[in-house]
Amino acid sequence: MREIVVISGKGGTGKTTVSASFAHIAENKVVCDLDVDAPDLHILLSPVVRQTTPFVSGNHAVIREEDCVRCGTCGRLCAFGAVSRQGETFRVDELRCEGCGVCVKLCPQKAVDFPERYCGDWYVSDTRFGPMVHAQLFPGQENSGKLVGLLKAEARKMAREQHLDTILCDGSPGVGCPVISSLSGASLAVGVVEPTPSGRHDFARVADLCRHFRVPLAVIINKADINAAEADAIAALCAEHGHTLLGRLPFSPVVTQAMVQRKALTEFPNPLGDRLKDMWSALQDIKTGR
Questions:
Q1: d(CA 42, CA 59)
Q2: Which residue of 45, 104, 225, 281 sits 20 to 30 Å from the alpha carbon of 87, by its own alpha carbon?
Q3: What digits encode the pLDDT tens for the residues 102-138?
Q4: pTM (predicted TM-score)
Q5: Rounded to 5 degrees, what are φ and ψ at 112?
Q6: CB atoms inside a 10 Å sphere around CB 27
C-alpha cells in the first residue's frame, strides 16, 4: 500500500488544487484530507457523508455551583488564568482551560467535574473520485495531530478492507504537529512550492522535516513563471539535496475557473491538467522502499 501526502511549507501554494487533480487521476485509492483545522478539499470533491463520528480529545474543568463553597482554591492554583470570579460564582473559561486537572484534584469539596472535550467531527464519505476520510475541528480546538493520526488509521483500514493500493492525503501547511503526524508512515511526500523568498524558506523547512523522517520528497513549483529566479533557486535546492523535481506549473486563470466549477484541473481539457497528469505518471516511477 502506497501512502502519498501532499504538503507545503506555507498556505496558499496550490496544495489542495494538486491534491484534487491527483485524486481524479489515481485509481484504487482512498482520499484523505488531513488539514483538519481549515479543510477545503471537500469544496472541490463535494463528498456525500455516510458516517459522522465525534472527535473527543482531552478534558476541561466545570465547576458545580451547588457544591462550590467559594473558597477560591481553584482560581489560585490555575496556572492558565482559566478560573474567574463572577459575583459570588466561580467559572471556568473553556478556551483558557488546558485540561491539566489541578483544580479537579485539589478542590477541597470535589466540586469540579472533568468531562471529555468535544473538539469536532470526522467523516467517512463518498465522492465522484472514490471514498474519502476527512474532518473538521471546532474553532480554537487543539489536538489536531491526534485527529490526523486517527484519519490516517481509518484510511489505512478502509484501504485494506476494500483492497485499495493507494492512500492520497492532502496535508496541512507548515511544519507543525499535524504535518508531523501526516508524514508518519508515509511512503512519499509531494511538496507544492511557490517561487517567492518566503516560499523557498518554508520549503527548506518542510524538506528538512521530510529528511528527518526519511520520507522521500518530490517537488512541484507552482506559479513558476511569476519569479523565474526564485523558481531556479528552488530547483537548485532540489538537485543539491536529492529531491525529485516533478516539474513547474505556470500561473493561469484556469485554476480559478476550475475552483468556481468545483472541479479538479484534470477534469476538463487545459494545459495545466495535462502537466499534472504527466507529474502523476512520474510519481509512479519514484522508488520509496515502503
A1: 29
A2: 104
A3: 999 999 999 999 999 999 999 999 999 999 999 999 9
A4: 0.89
A5: -115, 120
A6: 9
Amino acid present at 139: P
Residue 32 grid cell:
484523505
The mean predicted confidence, pLDDT, of the chain is 94
Q: How confident is the model at residue 290 (pLDDT cuts 50, 70, 90)?
A: low
| 120 residue type, one letter | G
Q: How far apart are CA 109 and CA 125, in angstroms?
A: 47
Neighbours of 80 (CB within 10 A): 12
Contact 59, 102 (CB under 8 A): no
Identify the residue whose cell numbers are 489536538.
Answer: 143
